Amino acid sequence: MQVHIIGDLHGYYDVYESLLIEHGIIDASLNWTANSDQLWLIGDILDRGGDAESCIALTMKLQQQASAAGGLVQCLLGNHELMFLAAKHFMGTPEIGEQVWNQWVKWGGQPHEMGNINDTQMAWLSSLPAMAQVGDLLLVHSDNLSYVSFGRSIDEVNRYFADLKDSTSVDKWNSTLRELSTRGAFNLSISGPRQAALMLKMYGGKTLVHGHTPISLSTDIRAEDVTQARTYANGICCNVDAGIYLGSPGFIKTFEMAI
Predict the structure, then answer these.
(1) Kind of pairing between the strands at 38-41 and 72-75
(2) Domains and CATH numbers, the chain
(3) Predicted confidence (pLDDT) per residue in 152-184, tens digit
(4) Are 66 and 34 in contact (CB under 8 A)?
């Protein structure tokens, strides 16, 4: 079995479709052809590119088709999904709603998408997990230690975010967003590998796979030249954020898994 992982799409549907076809995960009619393989989106499917609706619609369609074929398609909750949900959640709330909305737009939110994304797609976004383990892979969106403050197990972390989405406390939403949005914790030469190892020890897995930080921002590689994942922190971290919104053509990272 193969596990295919795509980093932060940020609404660039054309890149998403092309990558899936190129790797034989879907056919030219946009139908699932990867049998029992798994496809994971690492989060931040929204904002910036302007066509998040199409990204979500295709992912939801492929979820159903993959499940019928014995495979799996899933997306993690990224900070941009959370900011989008906050803007929706507090819409219409005097003063607070405007502040949250403006913050979302500042982060790259596309106002037209708030109207284009229907209730079914909104419910799908609200149900996304924040963490997952697939074999020896620990999948998270952000390259930071904030998850340890949300829960001491994958189930606890996911439960925290499920509960947050019903919270009326803007302070709780904002503090969670601040924590989830920090970056670079595992990139430090000395403490980085140690912190990544702590995450793996707490939640499971041997390799921590994340997005959130475009590879070009932590290396001397230009965004347009980023065409593969970056393994670092003594080999235990794998960054899959190509930086598509910065000009990378994108890539899919594939892991071989024993069935």
Answers:
(1) parallel
(2) 2-256 (3.60.21.10)
(3) 999 999 999 999 999 989 999 999 999 999 999
(4) yes
